[in-house]
Every structure is written in C-alpha cells, then in structure tokens.
Amino acid sequence: MADLDRIVPLRTEGDLTPLFCVHAVSGSAYSYAGLSRLLDEGRPVYGFEAPGFDNDRTPVRSLPALADEYTEILRAFQPSGEYRLMGWSLGGLLAHEIAKRLTAAGEKVANLIMVDSGLPVVMPLPPERDILIRFIRDMMGLEEAPSELRSLFADWPEDVTPDVVFEAVEESGLLPEEFDAYLLGGQYDVFRAHLEGFYSIDVTGGYDGPAVHVMADRSVAEDMQWKRLMPGLREHTIPGTHHSIWQGDSLPVLTRIIQDALDSENYG
Can you give the pTM of this predicted structure? Predict the structure, then answer.
C-alpha cells in the first residue's frame, strides 16, 4: 500500500492540476512553503516528505528505489490526469526520475521543473567530517562554512563521529536552540542516506517531455549539464546562490519563471 503520508499539503485550494514538489537532500517539503504562497491562486501545491524525516520510516539510500516509491504514491494520490512535477537540488533529480517512470507507464507529464539541480556522477562518498560540515551548512542555509564552523571542525579527524559533532554544534549556538543534538542526529540520518544515493546513482535514459531548469548564477554551471539528457530543456539563470534564490527579492523572480512554465502552452 502506498505511503500517502509522504504527501504534505502546502496549499490545497484551487481547481487546477496540482503541482507536486519533491524534497531536497534534507528530506523536508517545507522549503517550498514560500513558493506555494506566491504562485497564482487556483493551483494546489503538495510536497513530498522523505521516509525518516519527522516519521518512523527508515531513510532510503537508493534514489531509484525512492523514485519508484514516489511514483507509486503519486499515482495513488492522483490516479489520472496530467502530472506537474518540481524539485530543488536533489529534488530536481528525483522529479526527473519520477517523470521518466510516469511517461514509461503511459502517463502525461505536463511539467518537469528543476531548480538548481546537480547532475550526479558516480563516485565514493567524501569523508564523514566533510559530509557533516555540508550538513551543518545546509541547516544554516549557507554555501560556505562561516569562520565559527571552520573553527569548530579545525582539529577533528576525517572519521569524527556525528554524536561528537552535534554535541559541539548544540553547545556552540550556531543553530537555533530547538536544533539539539538529538534532532540533528535524526535529520542527519536522512541527509546522509540521500547523499549516499546521489553519489551512487548512474542517471541514464533521456526525458523528452516539457522541462525547465532554473539555475542560480553563483552555482557551478558545469555540475548541472542536463541538456545532454534533455535536449529540449529550457534553462534560466537568476541572481543568487543555491539557497538564497528561495529568499528575499530572488524568490518572486524564481516564482515568476515557475508560474510562466505552469501557464505556458509551450510547456504543456
């Protein structure tokens, strides 16, 4: 039976075909909450929340298995009609995998919208310390580690254990007090599982449906060469970083591109 609890309602009002937003590496759907409020009225918006994030499921380490599960959930939640998919970062990769599965099953995907999504290359995982630094940066919404975080990690070995890190982070005050060592540990399990999946997936097979990719101008464009898999992909670049495009003046710019894609007949 499909685990429909993975579907999080962000905006339920409206009669248009819903937009389904796939979580990034954190596993949380709530990065799309601001977007859901800015999109034109009439479009319901739902998010996918990962197994293991704020629930008792075990995190899933295989992205193809996760895409299989989400495709099953999506078809159970919306049994018929066209599908509109969006995903930021890892979510864009998962949305691409879901779109391939839906079209292979004979379903119509009207939109595939990716936001600053890297195209993975199979390689070994970085050392545990580097993964932990990346996790804390992600929790802080930063591209680079601030000096306080660099000082915290300076003398730790590559195989430092998560418990040691999270206790130190809790004491440092780098994150809001609700992010204690226990909460960080649970969220790190999800983050690490998804990162493991990203480093191990070999993306094969193209997708020729309507697709858009919005990239931040301060991200590494060479890491996002999706056109070799989607020759008809329409690309946009907006000012900002991987995280900042979801904030401040950048969010309305991002929202308008997404809204135009949803509205345009050229995008389905």
Answer: 0.96
